Amino acid sequence: MSRRAAPRRLPFVSVKRNIPQFRDSYGHWWIEVDGTESYGWWSMRCPLSIPQVIVGTIGTLNGVGGDVAGGTPTTDPRHGEDADFAFQPLLLAGKSDTQVRDEIRAFAASYGGRWGWPWWWRRTPMTNCHTFQLDLFTAIGLTEGAELLYTRGPGCPFMFLVRRLRWRLADGLRAGIQGLVDRSNLLVLQQADEPKTCSPQPASARHQRRLTRPHRSTVVRLCQRVGGTMGQ
């Protein structure tokens, strides 16, 4: 099929997002295609232990092979369920519907990575159901649209204390830097307001020698006078 003009909404694709809740799936995100197939990213272990939250665990497409039941290679365990947010994504690239379907399937089949929270200190990024969907959007050329960005939600409630601590550290760092900048600017202004006094600079040794050295004509006259006296 020929490519269709973009941007356009995709009526055969449904993006579903749940708000993170305690004792649930940490706010699962998945995507459904034609109402018959769906894709989401799960951890092999559910619920997660504290060490697994920190260091991560194995990730799996649709929870296949993990502790969550009901998933298949082409259907997410939450397939067909209602979600807190559901919408048709906006396609930004000129592609046919068939091409979009094929690219969604190919991306889901090739996705991999360690499932966990995206801690800032890790050298390799973690993956989860949120990163899976956002990476899929980037790979295919999809977006929510500005009016639907709120569906990304506030983030995982389990990490709220960690996020609040990080916000406080960031705010303290910014305040410290701003304080140093303000203090530096104040010192510059104070120096600019101070009256400047000009003191004569001492002449260099060479210049002083020039000032005390007799002129050449004076030396010649003295020599002539001395010579004439000696000749008398």
Overall description:
By secondary structure, this protein is of the alpha+beta class. It has a domain at 8-165. 39% of the residues lie in helices and 14% in strands. It has six helices and nine strands, in the order ββββαβββαβαβααα. The protein has helices spanning 50-55, 97-110, 129-140, 160-193, 205-212, 216-231; strands at 8-9, 13-17, 29-33, 37-43, 57-61, 85-87, 90-91, 114-115, 142-143. The strands form two sheets. It has a six-stranded antiparallel β-sheet with strand order 6-2-3-4-5-8. α2 crosses α3 (129-140).
| Rough outline | extended
Q: In angstroms, what is the radius of gyration?
A: 39 Å
> How many individual β-strands?
9
Class from helix and strand fractions: alpha+beta
Q: What's the story with the biggest beta sheet?
A: 6 strands, antiparallel
Output the strand order for the largest sheet.
Answer: 6-2-3-4-5-8
Roughly how many Å apart are the termini?
129 Å
**Overall helicity:** 25-40%
